[in-house]
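Weekly sync, protein design subgroup
Attendees: M.S., D.O., the rotation student, P.L. (late)

Item 1: inverse folding check
M.S. brought a backbone from last month's batch and wanted to see whether the design step gives back something sensible before we order anything. D.O. pointed out we never logged the input encoding, so this time it goes straight into the notes. Structure tokens as presented (213 positions):
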């Protein structure tokens, strides 16, 4: 039996996840789960010294996302309510596998699976794929102070990590629908027609699943 979808918007830093998920939430009338970013007290220190502060940073994100999905996400899903999120819980592993090493990486992996294996996972992913130039331009535009000194090599590697992660999800979760958006050519903020195309695709998916519930 199909269930109303749990939709996640994903992509590397600066892709526009929160902007698109907020626009879709308003257009589709869906509740939205937004991750905590700027409230993370380790962000500034992380970008100054990734090796020193990555474990603290990733644990803060993991615990907050876990708590949000446990408290809010499950309630919507249990009530057959479609919901949209500006993250997929698996993003924790995308970042941790890049920033953590050795014993810390293994400890984190164990904690991640302990917390998340029984959480609901999105069955629709809107993946915003964008080049380094596009991401850097959007990061500069939003003017978050802690992001301005970001290592471009780190961001470039993150683009590749996201591509690999989406391919892995598609392989191990064949029932998950992944809608890939070319962030270099599609401007869902300035081009209403392009945004409407994304929203229409999701409306169709929601309708199909509700019809078969």
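Designed sequence read out in the meeting:
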């Amino acid at each position: 039996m199909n269930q109303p979808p749990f939709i996640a918007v994903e992509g590397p830093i600066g892709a526009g996840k929160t902007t698109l998920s907020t626009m879709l939430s308003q257009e589709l009338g869906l509740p939205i789960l937004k991750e905590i970013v700027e409230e993370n007290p380790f962000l500034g220190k992380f970008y100054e010294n990734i090796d020193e502060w990555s474990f603290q940073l990733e644990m803060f994100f993991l615990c907050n996302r876990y708590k949000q999905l446990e408290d809010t996400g499950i309630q919507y899903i249990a009530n057959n309510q479609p919901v949209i999120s500006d993250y997929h819980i698996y993003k924790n592993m995308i970042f941790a596998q890049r920033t953590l090493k050795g014993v810390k990486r293994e400890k984190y992996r164990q904690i991640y699976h302990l917390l998340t294996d029984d959480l609901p996972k999105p069955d629709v992913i809107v993946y915003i794929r964008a080049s380094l130039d596009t991401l850097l331009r959007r990061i500069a535009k939003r003017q978050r102070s802690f992001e301005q000194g970001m290592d471009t090599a780190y961001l470039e590697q993150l683009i590749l990590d996201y591509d690999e992660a989406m391919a892995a999800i598609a392989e191990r979760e064949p029932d998950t629908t992944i809608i890939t958006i070319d962030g270099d050519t599609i401007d869902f903020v300035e081009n209403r027609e392009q945004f409407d195309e994304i929203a229409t695709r999701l409306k169709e998916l929601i309708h199909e699943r509700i019809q078969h519930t």
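Discussion: The mean pLDDT is 89. Helices lie at 17-28, 43-48, 50-78, 91-99, 102-116, 132-142, 152-172, 192-211.
Action: P.L. to compare against the previous round before Friday.
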